[in-house]
Write a structure and sequence with these properties.
Layout lengths: L2 H19 L3 E10 L2 E9 L6 H18 L7 E5 L10 H7 L3 E10 L2 E11 L3 E6 L2 E6 L3 E6 L4
Parallel strand pairs: 2-3
Antiparallel strand pairs: 1-2, 4-5, 4-8, 5-6, 6-7
Helix pairs in contact: 1-2
Length: 154
């Protein structure tokens, strides 16, 4: 397990009872380096949507717990937020929740002249993601997918 994965796992373990106490679920936890700074991001969700107060309550409690346990020796910036409308679908549980919904797929390299596709997420497995565009289905190897997000229109 990489350092990043270990930090994310430990943070998710600390976050679980905090999320439950605040009536939210954990959507994702990520530890990333951007420029010279490290960020520990916790994404929370709930059916009716996450409020600023939810984020503040969870952030304060998580910050206190991280200070108490100190599982990450590096300096980092803690952020707690909603995953947003165009949320990234990184894990199988995210994909499962999005089956039947419109998604945007971005590929590492062009397929038939394009790196971006959108359609209804039909199904997925360990090796592929299948979307429906009208009456046609299009399958992508998961290893070729750079990003998949929920589509949203304003």
């Amino acid at each position: 397990m990489s350092k990043r994965e270990d930090y994310e796992r430990k943070t998710e373990e600390l976050l679980a009872p905090i999320a439950e106490a605040n009536g939210v679920s954990i959507y994702d936890v990520e530890y990333v380096k951007e420029g010279s700074d490290y960020y520990l991001r916790a994404y929370i969700d709930k059916p009716e949507g996450v409020s600023i107060q939810d984020c503040e309550n969870v952030s304060r409690a998580l910050s206190d717990e991280l200070d108490r346990v100190d599982p990450i020796p590096d300096a980092y910036i803690l952020e707690v937020s909603s995953p947003g409308l165009g949320r990234a679908l990184k894990k199988d549980k995210h994909l499962q929740a999005a089956v039947g919904m419109e998604v945007e797929v971005k590929l590492f390299k062009p397929v038939e002249g394009s790196r971006e596709y959108s359609g209804i997420l039909e199904r997925f497995d360990a090796g592929s993601i299948v979307i429906r565009q009208g009456e046609a289905e299009r399958a992508f190897d998961r290893s070729d997918v750079a990003q998949i997000r929920l589509a949203f229109d304003f």
